[in-house]
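Thread amino acids onto this structure.
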């Protein structure tokens, strides 16, 4: 059986089209240049060719875009950075644009700065990284930005959220265990310093709340918390908390004061769709963290206390030292 060159060409083109159809379609810049975006005031603006002028003679312009999956549904979503020029002010906003079939939708807008420079944006494993250039502290707004910063954001159930990445130390995967002498050991016979709240990642050991206890074998990966902070004084510390709740990465802030008192604020999770059991576990854990009122460190163990229950952790990997981000 023989085929004509023309027929062979059609077959190749058809097979190529089928293969292309298997790949999620990215949201291109041209599509975003003519899209509708949310405003910080709760309204909407629609760009034409990347620009528009809204009420009050405010000029909106699309500066840059990046493609990636923001909600873990395998569709290729996008982020966009827009400038709203009001004359004496030039607000830059970050937007999360999700694909919904053939449609795209801006689901969250967040201010990232006034008269700063945005150099690059990218989406890596659902996390949004934005490279910006800002002014030095104390510089007037007329001075050109000169300091590079890289804030990170995530699309969570609270919308676009500024998050802190709290990383483990390179090459370290050391479990801190109690020694017979009662101190902490590094696992190689060398005594290790007793973990503090900020020096190690904390892995969940037990979670009891009232008549419900977590099945810790349900999550495929360890449930963890990491803390990052700069003490204001001996009595009070505020900072960022990040971790993994069994399905999603979680983020929030915390405050310790009056010795062992602790509160969590704005604890939220990314938007990966979870199975029924992991989703239930994650929701209960987030609710419990929001109810925490005190904590206690004993050796390599940490206990979070809440009304009607406790959450217990064990010190795991050592963390890098970090300075909290400015955004």
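Threaded sequence (327 positions):
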């Amino acid at each position: 059986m023989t085929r004509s060159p023309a027929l062979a060409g059609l077959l190749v083109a058809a097979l190529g089209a089928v293969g292309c159809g298997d790949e999620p379609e990215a949201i291109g810049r041209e599509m975003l240049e003519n899209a509708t975006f949310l405003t910080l005031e709760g309204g909407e603006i629609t760009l034409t060719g990347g620009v528009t002028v809204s009420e009050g003679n405010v000029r909106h312009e699309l500066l840059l875009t990046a493609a990636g999956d923001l909600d873990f549904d395998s569709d290729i979503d996008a982020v966009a950075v827009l400038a709203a020029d009001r004359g004496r002010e030039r607000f830059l906003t970050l937007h999360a644009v999700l694909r919904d079939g053939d449609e795209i939708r801006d689901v969250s807008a967040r201010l990232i700065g006034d008269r700063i420079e945005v150099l690059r944006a990218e989406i890596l494993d659902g996390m949004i990284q934005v490279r910006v250039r800002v002014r030095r502290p104390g510089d007037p707004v007329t001075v050109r930005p000169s300091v590079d910063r890289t804030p990170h954001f995530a699309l969570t159930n609270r919308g676009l959220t500024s998050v802190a990445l709290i990383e483990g130390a390179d090459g370290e995967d050391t479990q801190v265990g109690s020694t017979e002498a009662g101190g902490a050991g590094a696992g190689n016979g060398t005594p290790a310093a007793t973990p503090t709240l900020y020096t190690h990642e904390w892995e969940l050991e037990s979670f009891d709340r009232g008549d419900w206890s977590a099945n810790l074998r349900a999550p495929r990966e360890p449930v963890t918390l990491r803390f990052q902070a700069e003490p204001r004084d001996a009595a009070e510390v505020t900072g960022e908390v990040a971790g993994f709740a069994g399905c999603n990465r979680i983020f929030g802030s915390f405050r310790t004061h009056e010795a062992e008192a602790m509160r969590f604020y704005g604890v939220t999770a990314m938007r990966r769709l979870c199975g029924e059991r992991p989703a239930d576990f994650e929701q209960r854990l987030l609710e419990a963290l929001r109810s925490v009122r005190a904590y206690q460190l004993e050796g390599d163990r940490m206990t979070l206390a809440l009304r009607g229950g406790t959450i217990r952790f064990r010190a795991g990997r050592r963390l890098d030292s970090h300075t909290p981000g400015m955004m």
